[in-house]
Amino acid sequence: MRMGITFTDRFDLTKSRLEVAMKAALFAAANVVRNEIKRGLRGGYTSGAFVTGNSLNKVVITEPVFTGWRGEISVASAQENPPYPLYWELGHYNIFTRKYERVEIWVPAFHRTQPQAIAAYARAFRAAVAGGAA
Predict the structure, then answer these.
(1) Strand partners, 67
(2) Which residue among 32, 69, 87, 100 sits deepest, i.e. has the most Cβ atoms within 10 Å of its Cβ?
(3) Burial grade of 82 (CB within 10 A; 0-12, 13-18, 19 or more)
(4) pLDDT for 73-117, tens place per residue?
């Protein structure tokens, strides 16, 4: 005697929707951090006398990388030659002021934005899983 129960495998659909949701959520969280870093870079690293906007315009978000069900995304500087933001963040001997200088903007911005980034991640994830636009 057979019951009238049928099984529909929706694993692939569920997996693809979760991947889309994770990608949208990672971008949403990274945007929160990127915006805070850009706010911090507006006036430059010190006096603001030599601000060109180059460091500000080179703050980028990478494509997400997935390993199994774990996703990672980076907020980074695309400024390579020379990597001025790296010099300021880690510290350097400044030839103009003739002293060691270090101004951290990136790491404090990351720490300050954690609650907002987590909330943005959750909102985007829920919206994408529900089928809405993230």
Answers:
(1) 70
(2) 32
(3) exposed
(4) 999 998 887 788 899 999 999 898 899 999 999 999 999 999 999
| pTM for the whole structure | 0.83
Q: Given CA atoms 121, 24, 83, 96 in this order, what sign does their dihedral have?
A: negative
Cα 47 to Cα 23, 100, 103, distances in angstroms: 38, 15, 11
- What residue ranges do the domains of the chain occupy? 19-129
Write down the residue that tokens 């909102």 correspond to. Answer: 123
Q: Is the C-alpha dihedral spanning 40, 41, 45, 46 positive or negative?
A: negative
Contact residues for 117 (Cβ-Cβ < 8 A; gap 6+):
29, 30, 32, 33
Strand blocks (E) in 1-134:
59-61, 65-67, 70-72, 75-77, 92-94, 99-101
- Whether a cis peptide bond, with omega within 30° of 0, leads into 108 is no
Q: Which residues pair with 99 in a beta bridge?
A: 94
Rounded Cα gap, residues 129 and 109, in angstroms: 29
